[in-house]
Automatic annotation (TrEMBL):
Residues 50-286 form the Aminoglycoside phosphotransferase domain. SUPFAM superfamilies: PLP-dependent transferases, Protein kinase-like (PK-like). InterPro entries: Aminoglycoside_PTrfase (IPR002575), Aminotrans_3 (IPR005814), Aminotrans_3_PPA_site (IPR049704), Kinase-like_dom_sf (IPR011009), PyrdxlP-dep_Trfase (IPR015424), PyrdxlP-dep_Trfase_major (IPR015421), PyrdxlP-dep_Trfase_small (IPR015422). Keywords: Aminotransferase, Pyridoxal phosphate, Transferase. GO terms for molecular function: transaminase activity. It comes from Dactylosporangium fulvum. This is Aminotransferase class III-fold pyridoxal phosphate-dependent enzyme. Belongs to the class-III pyridoxal-phosphate-dependent aminotransferase family. Pfam families: Aminotran_3, APH.
Amino acid sequence: MNIPRSRPEPFVETAFQRISAGAPEVSRTQLREVLKESYGLAVAQISELGGEIDQNLLAEADDGTRYVVKVLSDAADFADITWRVELLRHLGESVTGVAVPRPLSTLDGDTLGVARREGRLNYIQVLSWLPGTLLSSLSRRPPRLLQGIGTTAATLVTALTDMAPPPVSRTHHWDLTRADEAVASCLDHVADPDRVALVTRVMTRYAALRERIQSLRKSVVHNDLNDFNILVARDANGCHQVSAVVDVGDAMYTARIAELSVAVAYAMLGTRDPLRAATEVVRGYARTTHLDPDEIGVIFPLAAARLCVNATTWTRRASADETGDYGRARSRHSWDLLAMLSDIPFTLAEATFREAAGLDPWPRGVAVRTEVAATFGARLTGITPCLEAAPGSTPVQNRADPQPATLELGMRIEPTDGTQFTTPVGGLVESADRQERTVTIRHDGGTATHWSVWRGIVPVVVAGARIGDNSPVGKVVGDSRDEDTGRASCRLTVLAEEDLVPRVPARVQPWLRKVWAALSPAPAQLAARVVADDPALRHAVAVREQYTGRAQRYYFDEPMTVVSSQGVWMSDTEGLAYLDAINNVTHIGHADPTVADAVSRQVRRLNTNSRFVYAQFGRYAERLASLLPDPLAVVYFACTGSEANDLALRMARQVTGRTNVMVVDGAYHGNTTAVLEISPDRYDSPGGGGRPDTTHVVVQPNRYRGPYGYDDPLAAQKYAADVADVARRLSAEGRAPAALFTEALIGSGGQITLPPGYLASAFEAVRAAGGLCVSDEVQIGIGRLGTMWGFEAHGAVPDIVTLGKPLGNGMPLAAVATTREIADEFDRGIRYFNTFAGNPVCCAAGLAVLDVIERDGLVERAASTGAYLLSGLRGLADRHALIGDVRGEGMYAGIELVRNRTTKEPADAEALYISQRMREEGVLIYPNGRFGNILKIKPPLIFDPSHVQILVDTLDSILTEDW
């Protein structure tokens, strides 16, 4: 085929030629002919993909194979196209982990086909189709995905380092090194004066860096990693990751850092915390390839400039009605993001990106800190620094992205003599605003210029005045009171760079802690000559892992370090509050004042071991026994649920003279050696050692995964029949069971609710074999299921009851209750003694817990709030296919996640991810169950419908996200 190889004139595009050319249009009939003749493709269907310059189409061949067909614009040059084909081939050979389109050759071995229309010639290019989801279609971009975008940018730019530049000089509208020219060509079409002013501010900052940009490293770059050119796909954990990059139409030889800057610009679109999103992209890039400090300094300005080009260009095109709704939407999103970026100082962005790249966030900050230590730190006199206010004194529920700003920047100072504030260090008063009650002073007399901002005072100085050391600055008058303390005070912040001054915040986000520490030295710490305790999570985790065994695990891959709690809320070192929907240890709520007062009074009076006689031991035993049904009347104390089950096991074996024990499949009864051997959840796990010969498992009465489902009215009898079969078999073998251990709701095994009637039938079968029935109420006792005891709702009374977690509301208190007959027989054997069990302090806590449950009607509340919770969760199941089953009783619920409702494939990775996301949004839940795919929910009994709604709404939002 005779294909024209070049145009007669040299190919040097003007900056705006391509943006004005418009996409060509070739008829479908002619395309089918070209594809058949040139490529041998019999095309069944052609559909439009859209495009700015070229006509892009999806062609599906008769055999179902898909291709991208590009009708290149009239301005296309063969040499330039050939270079792009070579670029795609180069990437295909050099890049792993991310796919790029593969260019197809014609039957004659040519690079392109040709279509002629009305005397014009258009090149036709065919590329392989890449499956995936457009990044632009995702509702959320989690950190891992954002880092993947950065990694992709680094991978591309590294692969293209040795790619030869295009054969001819080329620039175009989207060349970031000429962004000011592109904006200028479109700005007249922007009618809104506020938007014009916004673009002007951004581009003024860009212009100040243009020479610096021109001097940076250059290479071939893709240059258009926008959210329509990046495809994502789910990885093995069900999370979206970058899978492919398309469209090299804007590839060129330019500043290497343009690749990352463009990726940052579009990654920020649609996010509520654009700086954080951008930082994750930079982090991913820096982990893959080197970033020069000079390059880091222009990433944010270049990204903002790209958005200015985007916003003004689409506004121009929309004004000419060239793009319809798409162009208007694209323009709107860019304008919205630009408005958010205008509040972010370039210095803050650069320092944040440096920290993400593993560098000192702001090297000059060291000199400023030294200067501030020698001035403010040495001379703060006559005022009292308030050191108690970091993090923020009022916890903020962490419900949204961006992360709430909870860390106080700078310091509060309070006058000790009158209401006038004095600066220890003189300087030039740059602003003094009586209405805003702020004073800004530039301190340039030392070795490192810095600024102090005084807020909450009426100035006694005027702008432009130069003041000396120890000069008055302002005073508190009238309603000048600190918002946190209500006392007369001033907020003083020291800043290392001028562009931080106009937008200095009172509080900052915790993730920016290290960056702001470099940009804003804390005068309070310097004045007090102290270094604040490091509350960083990484430090706490590192110390824990260094000095404790790793088997002592913690919740979440990225946990929070909790420092306080109240009611249903837990607060971390950064002032963020979390709704606790998992902590059934604090049965009646965190820091309950009744329990706290009882413990405080008792610990100051008496605490000793239980071989002494004190009233609390007997009073608490009597109180528990009075709540249990006959014939359960005797109580033994322990410290933990594991100890209680261990004691029950010992009791059953001693009283019956037997060693074999029956347990429900998947059960967990504690962590002592003895009860681990009757815990399938543990001995069947990696390293568990397998089932001991004396342990015998009965089928778990699981109506979701088991053989008898919710729709089987005889499920209880059928599951109980297995208990009877095992008991009869053991008796026939001369190994009759000592006991059956079970829960009235199987907890760690997956929040399995028992079929009505199962427990009574199972107990009957075990007793028929001469065994005892042990009801493990460690997780569900004293009210959690909406009844005082879990077995109570099943019309069954066990021989032995074990209690633990909820009894002391966090104090180590557990118990075993049994009949007088069993107790007397047990007492004939080895004596039972437990040093700390039933000590006066823990008994005081236990009595207080029972008082609160009775006083506040928490059993009834668990029933009503639990019904509301289950209703809300089942509503989610109607909307989200990932939820296979919702089950529970009272304030104990489980959500089983499956990838397919028919096959019930466990969604374990998804469950863990969702729990991590819930933590990020300020709600604590966690997976459990045999497959790790069940979200367990077991909050304090003081949960109310408003808390339920927070939990349900947050979970609904996360299940709706793309991840």
